[in-house]
Amino acid sequence: MGKARKPVQIIILALIVLLGGYAIGTSAFGGGGKPEEGSRAPSIELLGLDGQTHTLDEYKGKLVVLNFWGSWCAPCVKEMPALEAQWQQWKDQGVVVVGVNVGEDQMTVQNFVNGTGVDFPILMDPDREAVRRYGVSPLPTTFFINAKGKVDTIHIGQLDLSTLSAQIGKLVNP
Amino acid sequence: MNGRLPLIVNTKCECGHQNPVGTVLCEACGKPLLDDPESGETLEMRYDGMARRSQKADPDVIDRVWNFFSSVKIAIYLIVLTLLGSTLGTIFPQESTFLNIDPSTYYEQRYGTAGEIYYRLGLSHTYESWWFITLLVMIGASLVICSLDRVLPLYKALSRQKIRKHRRFLTRQKVVLVTMVAEDPEVWTARAVQPLKKQGYRVFTDGGALLAEKHRFSRWGPYVIHIGLIVFLLAVLARGLPGLNMDQHLAFPQGDLIHIPDTSYYLKNEKFTVEFYSDEEMPEEFRGKKVLPKLYETKAVLYECTEDCGDPSKEPKLTKVASHPIQVNDPLSYKGMKAYQFDYDLTPVLRSVTPKLVNSRTGDSYGAFKLEMKNPQRSFSAGPYTLELKEKYMEFGLNEAGQPISKSPYPNSPAFLFLIKGPNLPAGGEQYFYFPKQNDKAEFQQDAINDKLGGAGRFLELEVGDMSGVDFSESTSYLNIRVDRAMPFVWIGAGIVMLGLVLGFYWQHRRIWLIVEGGELTLGGHTNKNWFGFRREVSFFLNKMDITADEKSLDNGGGQA
């Protein structure tokens, strides 16, 4: 035992650092909880209005503006034109605007989209699973997810064109 | 503990044994190494005088870290700090005790400035905070290192005991007897074996020297406790791993199949029942004043998805795996997942209506169709007529511009706009607004709207004959879905702790050494607790050997009863 003393000590200390680091790390960076600014954007798998299943991985390497909305939510309706304008302005420069409808059925979403003429990808979250994962409570809430898949900024409430433009501009040309 | 060692010490005992640095009593013969030979004080017998593993003449960084955690003093500080930290978490309720609050405003609103400070300091989630977890990790490290540092030397010392000890080792024990014996040393010791064996001792002799020992296993008690605590801590730590712990509250409207997030399970609330105590069943003072529930029950069926799971573009294939009438404290349980009754809501939720298209002039009926609130069909046919669903509003209202909108996604006052085509209608069809709920029909003036849309000559109406044409989810049951796969390990840890406590508390490690030399018997005895019982045992043994020794006379001081 005498000769093995040092390696044993090192192995045990390493194990403690590993396990302890994991425990402290997950508590300090809010593991498992809702995402915060700087944390990894949770994955989602939702049905799009186009009938296809979409995930965030599709947009890897792009700046994603993930906007949670509902047709009954007046500020969400009001910010739609701003989002659409930004989508048109930036879509060729590695920016994608994704609208996640919260809890409504396909007909409502389709009618709404037709009515407002938005063109960016719309996903549907009828069981509110993405809402739960992203810890969204008031609507609208918008997550700016950078090309590395990390949440850069969380904006709660209505977005206006100028802040949206500034925000995206800052992320595209840092 | 003797921490202040001189820089260079000769650690070789006179019996020829080479002891490690920090040894208090020679590992072989037990001779006290460190103090004044003339001292008459009783010996410090902790860990049998062995050096702890970490005691070294020239510690490096790793040794210093090791020594830090190996210190019992540090361990006690850590425990006290954790205790104080835990009490901070009990001042106001923790965030985790609420389901739906915004902690950034709740604490200030409920408790004022103190609450605000409490929240800002992060004390509203004390037990998940990085510093609290750090303290727990440090206690865990201390447990492992303290134990290893002591249990290995102790094990070595106890498994390699020499029968013949240094005389000074015997005379400085807490139980001592020095007396004359006339007999031959070997004969006397041989005669002593039997009575000691009768008392349950394991006896070893070496000429005129004897060692009797019992219940050594009791010494492992504290270390068994430590192992239990480590298992406990690791289990608590493991709860944070994905899939090992889940605790969520979900709404299950009666009759709806609901997916349980992050699992492949679906649960259907087939029937929720709430019963209340009747007036006769309640005590006098409650009658007519209180409503007391007697039973909450959710008839639940659990399905597991076997194919096409997680892909929202496909319908999942489900297999029924369990069913149970869930009552309070009687959850549905399947493979470690439990569904507890948590809350209920008796507000009915409209699911579908089956209206008939009728000719209001002739009274003719053209047939009925089922109109779902969620994902309805988009076109229907009734007799010669086709109805195309154009718009739907779950909670009908008007926005600032006077346009119809839905105020929420919940079917509280649903409204539907149809385009009806068929005989005797304009070529482009006729628009028709339909409010399934009778009171909405009146409130929003369905007839007036439709008169405007279709003109006074319109003759078609949608009508629900009786309640059979209306499908409600009568109530909603809220269930608490829990998975705690780490729990069995928490119990195992607790069980090991209990075993260690029993080992350490109900038995004592007792040892008697004796040397007969030159007509003199020297006896020393040691136990780790219950000295009173031990002295009685020694006195009883000596009486058997025809030596009268009163229990008290065996006491060599040392301040322990």
From TrEMBL, chain A:
It is found in: Cell envelope. GO terms for biological process: cytochrome complex assembly. Keywords: Cytochrome c-type biogenesis, Disulfide bond, Redox-active center, Signal-anchor, Transmembrane. GO terms for molecular function: antioxidant activity; oxidoreductase activity. Residues 35-173 form the Thioredoxin domain. GO terms for cellular component: cell envelope. Signal peptide: none annotated. It comes from the Bacteria. The keyword Disulfide bond applies. PANTHER family: THIOL:DISULFIDE INTERCHANGE PROTEIN DSBE (PTHR42852). This is Alkyl hydroperoxide reductase. It comes from Paenibacillus rhizophilus.
